[in-house]
Amino acid sequence: MKSDRVRHWNRREFVRGVTLAGTASLLGVASRSVAAEPPPETTRLRLVNMTGICIAPQYVAETLLEGEGFTDVHYVRTSSGLATARALANGDADVTLNFVGPFIIRVDQGDPIVMLAGVHAGCFELFGTDRVRAIRDLKGKTVGVQARGSSQHVFLASMASYVGLDPQKDISWVEHPSAESIRLLAAGKIDAFLAFPPEPQELRAKKIGHLVVNSSVDRPWSEYFCCIVAGNREFVRTHPVATKRAVRAILKATDVCALEPERAARFIVDKGFTPNYAYALQTMKEVRYNVWREYDAEDTVRFYALRLHEAQMIKTGPQKIVTEGTDWRFLNELKRELKG
After folding, report:
1. Are residues 94 and 17 in the same domain?
2. Which domain range does residue 96 map to?
């Protein structure tokens, strides 16, 4: 049985553990950059807390944000998808991770959101009954989602449009909390459910349904970021140093999730972001947290903007979304600083 010291380590222990694990470059080189920068324009930072734990880097970053000069870090509770994007646009959150699709939808509608960096790939997994063997089989079928506009709904609509389905007409969407959708899938009362961590881990453990698509390994979804960090446009404009420091903490935390999955999983469980350590650890090992230096965030925005345009969920073309809703300068600087 693990001692309280292991379960409740503080910031110094966490950083030391990361360094001992061979990630000293993440914290060493970056610390010199931090020391050379002016302090953040604000010591307060608000991020989002949602049910999905694929955004674990945002939670693990809580510890690293202290080293970036943020002494007042808050996590605002909201749902994933458009609800998270609205919280950012409304100024209820300053910076947050979320599936890229809802950000694109809100930028299309004129919301003050700016996408800043790609973080990871491979969140979502589509599970189905024997009636669903491929995405095209969703035509005429019933699919459970948390809500229209949720990350589940937006992602699956993108997938459907990619294979030529009309997500508005060809799929019957039913809205339930995820736990209820999982129960209905097990009973065969819905045909499919798009799960994001820790739900895929639960479905596999309980042998509910079968895997249809895994966005971590199945192309083209595996070739693009799933979740992107974005900021409130006014916050980014008036707090550029704080924005860079926040993004740096999240990207360093992403490396921690990739290199030290056990510690990252224990951290988010001990902090109360999720209750099941086994599912959390599987998530850390299965989500692709090691691609943020390699993948092109702008390509991801273009890809999903095209899919959402095909699905008639946005009116704006990809180039306008990129021009009006992205700012990669912080990411480009941090790629040079945080070389793997």
Report:
1. yes
2. 4-122+224-337
CA-CA distance, 44 to 242, in Å (whole number)? 9
What are the C-alpha distances in Å from 316 to residues 101, 165, 305, 323, 325? 13, 20, 8, 11, 11
| Phi and psi, residue 115, nearest 5° | -80, 135
Instruction: List the one residue out of 15, 63, 8, 67 whose CA is nearest residue 40.
Output: 67
Interval 316-325: pLDDT, tens: 899 999 999 9
Is a pLDDT exceeding 50 seen at residue 28?
A: no
- CATH, residue 52: 3.40.190.10
**How many other C-beta atoms can be found within 10 angstroms of the C-beta atom of residue 104?**
31
pTM of the model: 0.86
Degrees, nearest 5: CA angle 282-287-292: 145
Same structural domain, 95 and 158: no
- 88 and 204 in a single domain? The answer is no
- Which pLDDT belongs to residue 326? 97
Torsional sign, CA 62, 66, 69, 70: positive
Gap between the Cα atoms of 305 and 311, Å rounded: 10
Side-chain-side CA neighbours of 63 within 13 Å: the count stands at 25
What DSSP element (H or E) covers 113?
strand 113-120
Going 146 to 148 to 149 to 151, the CA torsion angle's sign is positive
Please report the pLDDT score of residue 27 as a whole number: 46
Count how many domains the chain has.
2
SS3 145: strand
Classify burial at 48, counting beta carbons within 10 Å of its beta carbon; exposed 0-12, middle 13-18, buried 19 or more: buried
CB 210 within 8 A of CB 300: no
CB atoms closer than 10 angstroms to residue 183: 15
Question: pLDDT tens digits for 245-274?
Answer: 999 999 999 999 999 999 999 999 998 888
Range in 142-151, 188-197, 216-225, 292-301 with the lowest mean pLDDT = 142-151
